[in-house]
Specification:
Helix content is 44%, strand content 11%. It contains 20 helices and 9 strands. Bound molecules: S-adenosylmethionine. The site of S-adenosylmethionine has 20 residues, from helix 10, strand 2 and strand 5. This is Methyltransferase-like protein 25 isoform X7.
Length: 439
């Protein structure tokens, strides 16, 4: 049985007590947490782990190993190992799903028109369908007229909010390529809806290419939106985002319908689906600083990309930790630990034995590759047969699967971008999309 959590976030003092307990628990293991999983193999990190623990875990079945993150221990394990696992489980922050309908009584999740879901996999469709309904419900209850989709990517969320819910939306993304895809996709969808509804005046998301680097920049952008009238195009030149943010800016204008004639004065909602690293934190900070922003609806992502004090990419306002309390408690994690924190115990537990073994193997092979690259020594020649690459020579037979799926390559090589993956694995040079749930 997984242990019951004895901590709570009901008050600031209780939250700090929880953070402090996490900090105390992690401190002795920072030498492990600060390393990438590949280093566990490459740098023989297992040698620094309790010998009794290793002796026991080496003999354990894969199925039982997969249950460790869920806090499930075996009776015959050393007491210190059991205590470590149970304490770690008791400190886990809650991840239970809330009952949306209870929180948002006016929520209605409409099923999406197929023209809107083109290009989405099942996971993305589910996320966009639900999140768009949540954003619409919150926009309605806060009387907000405009939604800024921050880190909009190819505009999936923005387009559903515009076409399905008839909201006024601005889609911001740092990538001009994504901006162009969003605009082209929106035009296609508009044609479909115009023909279906015989309405030529449809809401189309406005696409803006802009790298949001601070809450001041997002605030300036929001202020500029709020000052505009209906149908007035947004001129990025007029927005003072500061020098660093203006580089490479280009704006495509679609029909902007930014402020309605609401009695409450213009107001905005910030929305983000998988807004990477610091971008989600910037949204929260902007929400706190700008009273016209009535709500923020954000699903964070890529916590390994957050800036952290003392790390190479830390700036004046770091993305982690966000809270002053956590900062004062001295909480410091590092890139690899934040990456690890995103792993889900439920997911490990539900893996099949074969899938888990393949996962472990990929890390081991990647470590072997990395050692090879470092020494620039060839480990030997090989040949392919029956779907396996065989390493020639040597005593024991060593083989690596040659039929890896694009996602298996992507995970095994440490989540490179699609461009980098195509460069690294020639077999994948034809690949046009990569639907990674983690990136
Ligand atoms: C993981 S993708 C999510 C895209 C989209 N929201 C979705 O769920 O399909 C994150 C997006 O945020 C954009 N992005 C990352 N940092 C940004 C920044 N500082 N300013 C603007 N966009 C950014 C990236 O270009 C990328 O398109």
């Amino acid at each position: 049985m997984a242990p019951h959590c004895r901590y709570s976030c009901d008050t600031a003092a209780q939250t700090l007590e929880w953070i402090s307990a996490i900090n105390d628990f992690l401190r002795p293991y920072m030498f492990l947490l600060n390393d990438h999983v590949v280093n566990f193999f490459k740098d023989r990190l297992w040698e620094s782990i309790d010998k009794q623990w290793m002796n026991c875990l080496r003999k354990e079945s894969v199925e039982n190993l997969l249950k460790i993150p869920s806090g499930i221990v075996q009776d015959n394990w050393p007491a210190s190992l059991k205590e470590f696992i149970l304490t770690s489980r008791s400190l886990v922050l809650p991840r239970e799903q809330v009952e949306l309908q209870m929180m948002l009584p006016n929520l209605h999740v409409a099923s999406l028109d197929t023209v809107l879901t083109q290009g989405m996999n099942m996971k993305k469709k589910h996320e966009v369908e639900t999140l768009a309904a949540v954003v619409r419900s919150i926009a309605e209850s806060t009387g907000s007229q405009t939604i800024i989709d921050v880190g909009a990517g190819q505009g999936y969320l923005a387009q559903v909010l515009s076409f399905q819910y008839n909201l006024s939306v601005v889609a911001i993304d740092a990538s001009s390529h994504h901006g162009a895809v969003t605009s082209a996709r929106a035009e296609r969808i508009k044609k479909h809806y115009a023909a279906k509804t015989k309405n030529a005046h449809l809401n189309v998301p406005q696409t803006v290419t802009c790298c949001v680097m601070s809450s001041d920049a997002l605030k300036a952008f929001s202020d500029a939106l709020l000052q505009k009238n209906d149908f007035e195009p947004l001129e990025m030149k007029e927005i003072d985002l500061g020098e660093p943010y203006l580089e490479g800016l280009e704006v495509e204008r679609k029909k902007p319908s930014l402020c309605s004639n609401s009695n409450m004065g213009p107001s905005l909602v910030l929305a983000g689906l998988h807004a990477c690293g610091d971008l989600s934190v910037t949204m929260l900070r902007t929400f706190i600083e700008c009273k016209e922003i009535k709500a923020v609806v954000s699903i964070g992502c890529c916590y390994n990309l957050l800036s952290e004090e003392g790390s190479q990419n830390s700036g004046s306002q770091c993305g982690f930790p966000v809270s002053e309390g956590a900062k004062l408690s001295g909480l410091s994690l590092g890139k690899s630990a934040r990456d690890l924190a995103c792993q889900s115990a439920e997911r490990w537990r539900s893996l099949t034995k074969d899938a888990a073994l393949q996962n472990f193997e990929l890390h081991a092979f990647r470590a072997a590759f990395q050692m090879d690259l470092k020494t620039v020594m060839k480990i030997g020649g090989g040949h392919e047969a029956g779907g396996l690459y065989y390493l020639d020579g040597g005593g024991s037979l060593v083989a690596l699967w040659s039929f890896l799926s694009p996602l298996q390559w992507h995970y095994g090589l440490g989540y490179p971008s699609l461009k980098a993956l195509k460069f690294l694995v020639l077999l994948l040079s034809h690949l046009s999309t990569l639907e990674c749930e983690l990136c």
